[in-house]
Write a structure and sequence with these properties.
- The chain is built from four helices and no strands.
- By secondary structure, the protein is mainly α.
- The protein has a single domain, classed as Regulator of RNA polymerase sigma(70) subunit, domain 4 (Four Helix Bundle (Hemerythrin (Met), subunit A), Up-down Bundle).
- Helix 3 packs antiparallel against helix 4.
- The longest helix has 36 residues.
- The chain starts with a helix and ends with a helix.
- The mean pLDDT is 88.
C-alpha cells in the first residue's frame, strides 16, 4: 500500500511546487506593475523605459510560467481529478484571451522608445491591469480546485 501511495504524494508535491512558482512569478509581475504605475505621469524618460522593459520581461516570464507550471501540467494528463480537468477546460479559453492581451501589450512596449507611445501608456497599463485581475481570478479557480479547496 505504501508504494502505491508514494507516487500520488510525489505528484501532489510537484503540483504544489509548480503552483508556488506560478504565484511567485505573478507576485513579482504585479509588484513591477505597481512600481511602474506609480511613476505617472509618464514621460519618455530612460528610467521609465527601463522600468517598462523590466515589467515586460516579468510579464512574459509570468505568462510563460503559467503556461508551463499550470496549463502544460494539466494538458500532459498529469492531473487525474476529473473535476479539475473539467474546470480547466471551461476556463482555459478565457485565459487564452488574456494571454493575447498580454502579448499585444508586450509587442507594443517591449522594444520601442516611449517617444511615440508615452501618451497611451497609462491607458494601456490600466487595461492590462484589468486583464491581469481577470486572469488571476481564473487561475485562482484552477489552483483552488487543484488544492482541493473547492469542488
Amino acid at each position: 500500500m505504501g508504494s502505491q501511495h508514494k507516487p500520488d504524494v510525489d505528484r501532489r508535491m510537484k503540483s504544489r511546487e509548480k503552483l508556488e512558482a506560478l504565484v511567485q512569478s505573478r507576485t513579482q509581475t504585479l509588484s513591477l506593475l505597481t512600481e511602474l504605475a506609480g511613476r505617472q505621469p509618464f514621460t519618455a524618460d530612460p528610467q521609465i523605459e527601463r522600468a517598462l522593459r523590466r515589467f515586460c520581461e516579468a510579464l512574459i516570464d509570468y505568462t510563460a510560467s503559467a503556461h508551463f507550471q499550470l496549463y502544460r501540467y494539466l494538458a500532459d494528463n498529469r492531473e487525474r481529478r476529473q473535476s479539475v480537468l473539467t474546470m480547466a477546460d471551461r476556463i482555459y479559453p478565457k485565459i487564452v484571451e488574456t494571454t493575447d492581451v498580454i502579448l499585444r501589450f508586450n509587442d507594443k512596449y517591449e522594444a520601442v522608445s516611449l517617444d511615440n507611445s508615452v501618451e497611451f501608456l497609462a491607458l494601456d497599463l490600466s487595461s492590462l491591469g484589468e486583464c491581469l485581475a481577470e486572469r488571476i481570478q481564473l487561475e485562482d479557480r484552477i489552483i483552488s480546485a487543484m488544492n482541493g479547496t473547492i469542488h
